[in-house]
Amino acid sequence: MDENHALYKTMLLIRRFEERILAEFSTGKLVGTTHTYIGQEADAAGIFSAADPDDVVFSNHRCHGHFLAYGGDPYRLAAELMGKVTGLVGGRGGSQHIQWRNFYSNGIQGGIVPVAAGMALAEKEKQTGQVVLVFIGDGTLGEGALYESLNLAALWRLPLLVVLENNRYAQTTPVELAVAGSMAGRFAAFGIPTWERETSDVLEVRALAGEALAHVRSGAGPAALILHTHRFMAHSKGDDTRPPEELARLRQFDPLTIHAARLSPAERDAAEAEVTAVLTDAFSRAASDPFPSLNTDDQRLTTND
Amino acid sequence: MPTVLDSLNSALHHAMESDSRVYILGEDILDPYGGAFKVTRGLSTRFPGRVLTTPISEAAILGAATGMALRGLRPVAEIMFGDFVTLIADQMVNHAAKFRWMYNDQVRVPLVVRAPMGGRRGYGPTHSQSLEKMFLGVPGLKVVAPSALGDPGGLLLAAIAEDDPVLFVEHKLLYTRPLLEAGQGDLADFTLETGGEPFPCFVLRPPAPPHLTIATYGYNFELARAAALELMMEHEIFAEMVVFSQLSPFDLPPLFDSLVRTRRLLTLEEGTLTLGWGAEVLARAAEGSADRSANFSLRAARRVAARDLPIANSRPLEDAILPQVQEVVAAALSLL
Fold first, then answer.
1. Reported ipTM exceeds the 0.90 cut
2. Which residue among A89, A117, A302 sits closest to B64, beta carbon to beta carbon?
3. Which of these, B155, B148, B115, lies nearest to B133 by C-alpha position?
4. CA–CA separation, B252 and B167 (whole Å)
5. FRET partner for A207 with CA separation of 20 to 30 A, picked from A103, B287, B296, B332?
6. How close does chain A come to B220, measured CA to CA in Å?
7. Could you read off the pLDDT of B156-168 as tens digits, one per residue?
């Protein structure tokens, strides 16, 4: 498949998946919470088109886009969000806590970074040649565990790529109220090189990610990829305090629109039809799957196993 | 005579020698210093690539160990003073202990965190605590504590062999203690029963029908046995001692079997009294007593623990805050 077409389809899959999730929440078919990736699709699509399929990924609360771009099955993700036994982790984790192959996510800000550093140490010691990618946001810059980990990663020259997606809001708090100084400077303090760009163009992201990944894969130690992006929807569901005119203004940075210009109308229509078919099948199968039940023999608090 | 320290140090040497996946990480663990309490002595000389000295970053130490464990290594992390486990709490509770179950048993996290706990050395409020109670009952986490009984090094090797995270609590005063065996020295009159694998529970049975059960773990077994000897010599009161190696989760049968014989329970720990280990042990005993299938009816129970205060630096104050042998004797007599 043509590269441009593939990137578009990945971004469209994420967009339509997330729209479907928000719709299901609004009609009460889904409960709990979610954090959509709408507006940031170019990051995941660009990065994973530049990464090796066997690289290790630690993602965060906003992980759906990363997972789908990694090659994850939308059906298993939908089932997980619905709490079904066929979900990625059998309904135990839900939206923020998934695991499949070399992909992991957790809902704790910052705490995943030292874990990713340890994974990178393991890959280095095992000489697998794999890079560990860990995804953080501007909000994560407030967490101390991040800086402990950057220090370790630099000291031990770990094959770790820290992807900082700055969507300019930590839940409702604008970056101006939460981040002092420079983002790149935080990595520079540890001697970690950064690749930084303000872009919603998937081709730019892919090129930049390719450079950063090549640096890490060469054995030169960790790197940071700082992508200034835009989140179009609420942090989770109903917690957007931004004025409507600002949200409307952000649409000029829509990564799908930017990249769509490189495809013919027929190609775009074909991608739309393909994604619709995949998601219709994924959500209908997931909806009819059974819920898990608790194995009462599995009371690990009271037994040795 | 080998000490608990010798036993633990030999175990780490053996673990690293026999399994190249075992890595040690922690602060100031390189030779010639070999760790604040010397448990890691000699390791960095023999296995230089697999002994990683770290910055003062407890959260990163445990996070890195968790990531290593997820990706096929078997890390053993040292937290220099157990008081600093507060700094690893997020990594332990929301990452290491959670991953296996949260990820539907698709992953394992085989890591050991060694943490020297305990007071009685005049180290003051932030270097003397027994904070393991904060980690008891965390789903997915085992808490294990060696005593001078049995084989502390074997216990550590068993922890390293586990596929789930283990918090391994070492009381500082244990390090210089010689390994103990029943039937020897001041334990000559007691018989030892060892049950449960791989983290056994020890039951020390007195030479006459026992009047009460003293449940304890770790270094506080030293206080329990001093109290048991005094009760026997001075008062002709016989105490049976149940010494746990695995604090959480824990097996009830050894305790219940003892309570069938005594129906009186005294718990002894060095952590603070309120909502502590002894509270859970007493609750389980009370439930066992209320359960018609259990063969005992609990007559009396009591906890001896540290007062609910920070641990003072001044020795007389520290002694007044931490449990003492005379308190154990008095509490035992009050149960009869």
1. yes
2. A117
3. B115
4. 20
5. A103
6. 23
7. 999 999 999 999 9
